[in-house]
Structures
1.
Amino acid sequence: SYVLTQPPSVSVAPGQTARITCGGNNIGSKSVHWYQQKPGQAPVLVVYDDSDRPSGIPERFSGSNSGNTATLTISRVEAGDEADYYCQVWDSSSDPYVVFGGGTKLTVL
Amino acid sequence: QVQLVQSGAEVKKPGASVKVSCKASGYTFTGYYMHWVRQAPGQGLEWMGRINPNSGGTNYAQKFQGRVTMTRDTSISTAYMELSRLRSDDTVVYYCAREASTVTTKYFDLWGRGTLVTVSS
């Protein structure tokens, strides 16, 4: 099955830029989606199809994907951005169809 | 209001079965696949499978084949996930999630709040 690798944790000061990576074999050939999950809550979609934002998600959230790494970038980080972030891909030619990364805990210092 | 409302927490004994429901509102239930994703305490997200509410067709992750059954009742816009032969490591939160798609990919744009299932003797 396809494997997505995320760093367990990323720390950033308020107002700075956070970059959370998601590694996978030739992930640039797939579409990557990102979810934010705060404690005790369900995940929320923040970026889909590599770099698109759902309505209501601040422009501070952006994404890119190339080669073996996809990246979620959060600009001007706020305390409220502290959460777990998961990347996800879809591949109906493999099992399971949906793969999530292991998640990254973003800590705002 | 577009939302998915899941059934309440359950406590089950090892070897038993559990059936979790997910009621959709605010959109056409039969127009979107419904997925089930689970999460162990303090752990990541794990995909279990999906159901086409229109046809009832299902796709399950191989890990859960033979133990999971996903069904739906279109008359009440509700999807169900039943997991049998429960073990202690099935003590997790189960989420339903609505599938959104582009030409090449699928993702989840709406999630239920989750249902905690505790398996304990």
2.
Amino acid sequence: SQTIHQWPATLVQPVGSPLSLECTVEGTSNPNLYWYRQAAGRGLQLLFYSVGIGQISSEVPQNLSASRPQDRQFILSSKKLLLSDSGFYLCAWRNGLNTEAFFGQGTRLTVV
Amino acid sequence: GESVGLHLPTLSVQEGDNSIINCAYSNSASDYFIWYKQESGKGPQFIIDIRSNMDKRQGQRVTVLLNKTVKHLSLQIAATQPGDSAVYFCAEKEGNQFYFGTGTSLTVIP
């Protein structure tokens, strides 16, 4: 069966520090991968998606970047965090044309 | 499209009653729609989906209705239970992207 792992679950980082959130998927190959951000009490904002290794599409201009160094690994990064980067970050994957996306358990990032 | 900047609307229902959660989508080219349930501090979980060539789909205690004319999606939960309390999101697929609606916070009153 397929599983998605996202870590860490919580993270507190100072302003100006770097960020690296990792997401890995098991039990499937060549998935579409997604990073979403959710502010408290808000909806989900699509940040990046990837259809293959090294292929990244960005939805919104921001202080973040994404990379896909391996087929089932998706990394969200920042060189210098801002207070506004605080939020709940969710990784998701999906396969197939019309299938649902499966989400990880999320990382709650607090920038202080 | 996305409405990520808006506060979540809320819905309170009595245990045992039926719940109806509504969602408006923006892109008439969207061909696939999903309802997700998100409990506090967790990732969204799939509830039910529907393709654009359908107008109704039923699951266990849940029904999704799709009205393409007015670009409206609804989720009906029968005999709502306390465990149904959560935030519910609709999502539309455009190509490879999934875009989420604002979400609705459902509270079930025992």
